[in-house]
Amino acid sequence: MDLTRRQLLGRTGLAGAGLLLPPAFGRWRVVAQDPGELPAPSPRVARFERLGFGMFVHWGLYSQLGRGEWTMNLHGVPKAEYAGLMQTFTAADFNGRELARLAKRAGMKYVTHTSRHHEGFSLYDTRGLSKWDVTNTPCKRDLIADFTEGCRAEGIVPMLYCTTLDWTDERFQSDWKGYQQYLRASVELLCTQYGPIGGFWFDGNWSRKDADWEEDALYGLIRKHQPQALIINNTGLGAGGEIGHPEIDSTTFERGRPEPVDRHGHPKWVAGEMCHTLNFHWGIAVKDFNYLSPAHVIEELCGCRRAGANLLMNVGPTATGAVPPYETALLEKVGDWIRLHGGDQGPLYRGLPAGIQGEGRDFGLRLGDEVYLFVHDLTLTADTRAHAQSRGPGARPFAGLDDDWKTATWLDDGEALKLVRWGDGRLVLHATKYPYGTNTVVRVARLKA
Ligand code: GLC
Known about the structure:
Radius of gyration: 23 Å
CATH architecture of the largest domain: Alpha-Beta Barrel
Shape: globular
Helix content: 10-25%
CATH superfamily of the largest domain: Glycosidases
Bound molecules: alpha-D-glucopyranose
CATH topology of the largest domain: TIM Barrel
CATH class of the largest domain: Alpha Beta
Strand order of the largest sheet: 7-6-5-4-3-10-9-8
Distance between the termini: 9 Å
Number of strands: 18
Strand content: 15-25%
Order of helices and strands: HEEHEHHHEHEHHEHEEEHEHHEEEEEEEE
């Protein structure tokens, strides 16, 4: 039983009811009508969806100040003073290959690195397009070349974040057409000087909602030079997955929550990606102690995959370009969890949403003729006088599993689990407690027919 994607989404059981459907391009909305045709994902979109988990990197001049990437704007730093940061930008600890190795250990398959952020400073040689670039710092290396080569050497897909909003380039204020040409010339360099790029991640159109961003021309360049590259444009906090231009290949949910979507009736199959920070800033903020835990990141990752969306998790390197030790350790821990749950070729990357829904946060993904059930909030086998209990083991019912499922085993230790069918048609997994000495936050069971 090898189901195609079309059949999978046909199995959501939502057809005919009030469907969660977006209009042609725009916010998701609920409609109650004929769901229409299901579009097929283009090869580049399908490839992106299989990448599953990526690393976002925010790094620039601002990293030397250690108070977030918006510091110039929010702390009102004058341009002349800010420009002084060019003189001290050494990138002494930046190593694209090391970054890619960390991504790999974390189970991440792509890295989206800032090439230029809102401050207007480019980490690459702009070949005279702007003075605010890495060639005019003591570093003297083209860091985007280092990054893209490092990624490819490790089998990691490099993607590039490009700001569309610019706080320092005069043209952004006084010569809109000129600014658009500068932006396109910059992107054309990124398209032609650094080999195959997995995708371009634009950010900033939300700053002037009514302006003409000349997106046709910008995206046309990418389609011309890098036809395999994905095009993303962050619609901003609170937009909740708004799509924007028809060339966009993936929606973004900035620190949001992607929900499973039935794509019948869409003009094209658009992927989903949720970006998140490990604390509350994208660029390093040394006084931000409000960090996520590995458990939280594991749950976020599962929450994204439940909806078929990718998770793009941000790190904020130091002034000199090293990933802070806590962030490194946290991501490595998440990588250990992924290796325990099928690793590289497992359900996290290749499993597809197929309308399998448990109670609470529990859900299932289908991979070929198998199903993987993701079970949350299990307890430890332990002395209950000494260990706090959360929602426990026992019956975990799942809807959307009509076939005759014969065996169920935990992925982490191979223990066989009981399956029964309830009168209401749901399939019930009898989840056991964590063996003492383990607690994997979300536990995954494999079902075979
Ligand atoms: C916002 C911020 C920006 C950050 C981005 C990441 O748009 O302006 O600093 O790069 O979100 O999603």
